[in-house]
Amino acid sequence: MTAACGLSALFDPASVAIIGASNDETKYGNWIAVQALRSTHERPVHLVNRRGEPVLGRAVHRRATDAPGGVQLAVIAVPAAGFEEAVDDALAAGARAIVGITAGFAELGEEGRQREAALAERIRRAGAVLLGPNCLGVLDTTSGLRLASNDMPAGTVGFVSQSGNMALELSRRLERDGLGFSRFASLGNQADITAADLIRSYTEHDGTELIALYCEDFGDGRAFAQAAADAVRAGKPVVLLTVGAGQASMRGARSHTGALTSDSAVIDAACRAAGVDRVTGVAELARLLGTLHRNRRGGGRRVAVIADGGGHASLASDVAEAHGLLVPEFGDALTSGLAAELPPSAGTANPVDLAGAGEQDITSFGRVLDLTLSADEVDAVLVTGYFGGYGGYGQALADAETATARVMAERIRAHGKPVAVHTMYADRPAARELHDQGVSVFGSVEHAAQVLGRIADRAERPVPHVPVLPPSAEPAADDDYWTARELLRNGGLTFPAARLVRTEDEVAAAAAEIGGPVVLKAMGLLHKSDAGGVALGLADEAAVRAAHADMARRLAPPGYCVEAMADTADGVELIVGVRRDPRFGPVALVGLGGIFTEVLRDIRLALAPVTAAEAEELLARLAAAPLLRGVRGRPAVDLAAAARAVEAITAVAAAHPEIAELEVNPLLVTPKGCLGLDARIVLGS
């Protein structure tokens, strides 16, 4: 936490001051004052204005220090030129939390950043916390605190946002779904209070059930991921909407690892480590929050599809499979049970097509749903089609349909398996009854299948684990191949026998000592192969001396590495790299290596350091995983050795903060073990 007093003064203060309160309806000082005055029964609200003129019909103080009883939380909405004076006034009045609405700091450049940092430090020294500046306010509906520019619905979602518009759109979508915010905090520039601080506070808050975020800058990404993982372990799902799919920050990448590791991929890796659900838009964010509110219990991928028409049955099955779900054929017992409830023309093997049963006997929906939910071979159910529209045929059928909706909801609660209902008539009474009874109802079968896929994903996740960075080791002296090789070898990675030499005679002597075919590598080159600084399969002294003479003439390197030629028979080449991300620290990359690295881009990412168990999981997720397990007569490679190598490589990188990029490519994995055949490091500037 950023201050010893925690965030209680931010979300449940004893008293509030609005510094910059205004009658001008175009100003935040007016908008926030309007909202704050709605809750004066919860705590004193003091309006502060230098002119001393009444605001919204209320008397004002010229300074916060004039407020009787002092001020615990101050919202500052004054021009940037007066912000520092307002901060001093608030602190003098006893404020332990300050919300900086005022803009004009770090977002304007270096001078603004320095000014902002100095202000944040001043506030921290006073034992207070700062939200913002350049933010849109804070609210806590459980404590009656309303200090944001707009009214927002109450509920159980704790929201953290760097965008006011995102908060407003999400609040409107949640409200339509009967949900709302327990807390909302606008991050602004995060000069003091960070997203991680707010997640921790929401995790401890009894009124918050779900945590949602819109973030553009994570600050300390490791702290963010750790706070999110703690929340997930505490039973509070975390859902993230963010940006970062671009490659702008990768323009300076100097290795395969840097070129392949986008901002978006790094965020995905952090989300996987922390157990966070990442979404791509506000609508998806709202849908997932609604589903998690109604059903957070486990699910699986085996889905029963129930439809009242062949077209919907087929389409829903395709859509379900596109979202990673399975629509398996039912066993004989379940098929027979369904056949007994439905017309002879009905489909009962999965998908289930009621074939007109809805019009003939609307209650069949409840019985079919109960049968499928009762079956051990079914993890979840997707209902799709016309349900909700039958009531349009007459009042008797409308009443029966609504009664059936109540039965369906009761059976869903009794079985505890995830159910999503898609209907063309989501606004009709029966569909609204399902919704009001806690069932997830959607107007799109794609959205219904998507949330079931999300629930299945969540059920398969391991316990969140964000790796802790080890103590820093002695820094690497330079970035040549030998340094990288020895750093990794000392860290536990096996390389072929090698010697570091300088002259032609030393090259020849080293080759003779190693014996057999050797590789000659020129030192001092980042991309040795591209420059012609690698000669393979040198079988005798003449070949060794010729290769040395060629490199000396073309490249004039400071030295050479003579290395035993590895036996690549039955081997698979991998790439293992680590890039130090400015927000999330070291990020590991594992993929198909050698000449296929950038062609196939078959890679997986994780926060580093990676354990051997985690490395095996990454390798298993590669498209090339069948090559590792053995295919078409090729033997399986030593996956355990590969996993240990990944663990060693990522541990070395994590212990060396001066290394911006580290890469082993290729890492040769054979049935007999694992060898590093090339390595490079890039030191940070």
From TrEMBL:
The record's section on Pfam families has: ATP-grasp_5 (PF13549), CoA_binding_2 (PF13380), Succ_CoA_lig (PF13607)
Q: Where is the ATP-grasp domain?
A: 485-534
Q: Which domain of life is it from?
A: Bacteria
GO terms assigned for molecular function? ATP binding; metal ion binding
Q: Where are the transmembrane segments?
A: none
InterPro entries named among the record's database cross-references: ATP-grasp (IPR011761), ATP_grasp_subdomain_1 (IPR013815), CoA-bd (IPR003781), NAD(P)-bd_dom_sf (IPR036291), Succ_CoA_lig_flav_dom (IPR032875), Succinyl-CoA_synth-like (IPR016102)
Keywords from the UniProt entry: ATP-binding, Nucleotide-binding
Q: Which residues form a coiled coil?
A: none
Asked if Transit peptide is a keyword of the record, the answer is no
Instruction: Note the Gene3D superfamilies from the entry.
Output: ATP-grasp fold, A domain, ATP-grasp fold, B domain, NAD(P)-binding Rossmann-like Domain, Succinyl-CoA synthetase domains
The keyword Nucleotide-binding is annotated on this UniProt entry: yes
Query: Protein name, please?
Result: CoA-binding protein
Organism (species):
Streptomyces antnestii
Taxonomic path:
Bacteria, Bacillati, Actinomycetota, Actinomycetes, Kitasatosporales
